[in-house]
Write a structure and sequence with these properties.
226 residues; alpha+beta; Aminopeptidase; 7 helices
């Protein structure tokens, strides 16, 4: 079984029937890891589907295989790709990466100026985030919206978070900043242009030298053979 056996698509109203199964698996997965995620109700997940703010993976036989949804904070200046889950029977098929890639693209399409962030304890998710352009950051660089942090109350590590005054916890904070990424791209383009200009100047210099040598050779030949 591989990624080709699945469809990874933007969820809609026709997928709301999967909401309860997805929420149950989110809760079970959090228990198994010994860490927590903000628990969401089936109604909340179904709303995200209706709003087109979620991605669902379906096996070719119609079984739900994975899910992730979008949340926005601080007047849509921050976006979180939350609740990433893969059905246990379909793990090790590359689905987590496919879902993360699609929800990331959906976030960029809907909120092109927003910073996209995540909190995770999973090394695999950290690796995927890094490939997408996320950078590890301090908690102070994330949204300071209290509603977001209240979502951590269902996490088994919430006491650690509050004890440390939301400055850090067991999760690693990662952020994709479109403004910073644009600066990086502009800097890369500037360096490329500089390299191209240097090559062009060298080529132009060689051409002038070559032309001068040819001119000198003609003068020499005319002097030898008047």
């Amino acid at each position: 079984m591989n990624e080709k056996d699945f469809s990874v698509i933007v969820a809609s109203d026709i997928h709301t029937g999967y909401a309860e199964q997805i929420c149950d698996e989110m809760a079970e997965s959090a228990k198994a890891r010994g860490t927590g995620i903000a628990r969401r109700s089936p109604e909340y997940v179904a709303t995200k589907m209706r709003e087109g703010k979620a991605v669902i993976a379906l096996h070719q036989d119609g079984t739900w295989a994975g899910f992730c949804y979008i949340e926005t904070w601080q007047h849509e200046s921050f976006v979180a790709n939350s609740g990433l889950i893969v059905n246990p029977q379909f793990r090790k098929c590359g689905l987590a990466k496919a879902i993360k890639n699609r929800i990331f693209r959906l976030s960029r399409e809907k909120y092109p100026d927003a910073k996209i962030f995540g909190l995770t304890t999973g090394l695999a998710v950290m690796k995927i985030n890094s490939e997408l352009g996320y950078e590890p950051v301090t908690y102070s660089e994330l949204t300071q919206d209290d509603k977001f942090w209240q979502g951590c109350k269902s996490c088994v590590n919430y006491d650690i978070l509050t004890m440390k005054e939301r400055k850090n916890c067991l999760c690693t904070a990662m952020l994709y900043d479109p403004v910073e990424k644009m600066k990086e791209l502009e800097e890369q383009q500037r360096i490329q242009n500089e390299k191209l200009n240097k090559v062009t100047r060298k080529a132009s210099l060689f051409e002038r030298i070559e032309a001068k040598l040819k001119g000198s050779a003609k003068v020499l030949l005319s002097a030898v053979h008047p």
